[in-house]
Design goal:
- The complex is a heterodimer.
- Chain A is an alpha+beta fold.
- Chain A has four helices and five strands.
- Chain A has one domain: Heat Shock Protein 90.
- Chain A has a five-stranded antiparallel beta sheet with strand order 1-2-3-5-4, sandwiched between helices.
- Chain B is built from three helices and four strands, in the order E-H-E-H-E-H-E.
- Classes of the chains: A alpha+beta, B alpha/beta.
- The interface between A and B is medium-sized, with 29 and 24 residues.
Chain lengths: 150, 88
């Protein structure tokens, strides 16, 4: 099963009506493309301006994670799949990395702030539901959901 | 110093370079005008945290002014609004 098949199946399981799939090179200059796509899709679904900004930020954090930790010479791209439902936007970001240790996700330490490690915390804070999946030989997938009218 | 546009994984390195130059060449506190900063994510926050650490070692501080609501929210959800001085 390819990376794209894998994320598309995830969308089907979530009963999404439409799917938009982006395969991006692991180059920082393309993260803005992902943000633009998220902005267009979320606006069209009817999310308010503040929520659209939240969704853009959460997706960008996941893309940054995929570029920094999820790509290698052999697999130099990652996949973003938008599952568009009546009341829910599901975004899955799949890379070939080994993922993250959930136990290490914690509140930022304000006494000793670090220069990294805020991304997953931000995603968890801004989205309604976030799941992490690490599959042997298939990489790491973050799936995040935002519900309309919540 | 005036911040413009978007600070993300693509632009963070350039932001860091310019911020370090401003720290090295300036004296006293650093004032960043964010009125034209449309977007920032954790990569930008990371650069700012690094800069603040350098500044604190020299007993200097960083002030951020005129943040747009989306950028201000990034500081509030991470608690970093308690570490940086955010002006109206």
């Amino acid at each position: 099963m390819s990376l794209v098949d894998s994320v598309q199946n995830e969308a089907v399981r979530n009963d999404c009506e439409d799917q938009v799939v982006l395969v991006l090179p692991n180059k920082p200059e393309y993260v803005s493309v992902a943000r633009l796509a998220a902005s267009g899709i979320a606006s069209r679904m009817g999310f308010d301006v503040e929520t659209v900004e939240d969704i853009k930020l959460a997706l960008a954090e996941a893309c940054t994670n995929a570029i920094k930790h999820g790509c290698c010479e052999e697999y130099n791209e990652y996949t973003i799949e938008f599952g568009i439902g009546q009341k829910c936007l599901t975004i899955s970001i799949a890379d070939r990395g080994c993922g993250i240790d959930k136990k290490k996700i914690c509140q930022p330490d304000l006494q000793n702030p670090r220069e990294g490690g805020l991304g997953i915390f931000i995603i968890n804070t801004l989205m309604d539901q976030v799941d992490f999946e690490t599959a042997p030989d298939a990489g790491f997938t973050i799936t995040m959901k935002k519900y309309l009218g919540v | 110093m005036k911040l413009k546009g978007e600070i993300d994984i693509y632009t963070a390195a350039e932001f860091k370079k310019q911020l370090n130059t401003a720290i090295d060449e300036g004296r006293g506190d650093l004032h960043l005008d964010c009125s034209e900063l449309q977007y920032m994510d954790s990569t930008g926050l990371g650069v700012l945290i690094g800069a603040l650490k350098r500044m604190k070692e020299q007993d200097r501080n960083i002030y951020l002014a005129n943040l747009k609501p989306n950028v201000r929210k990034l500081f509030s959800i991470t608690g970093l609004d308690k570490i940086f001085i955010l002006e109206v």
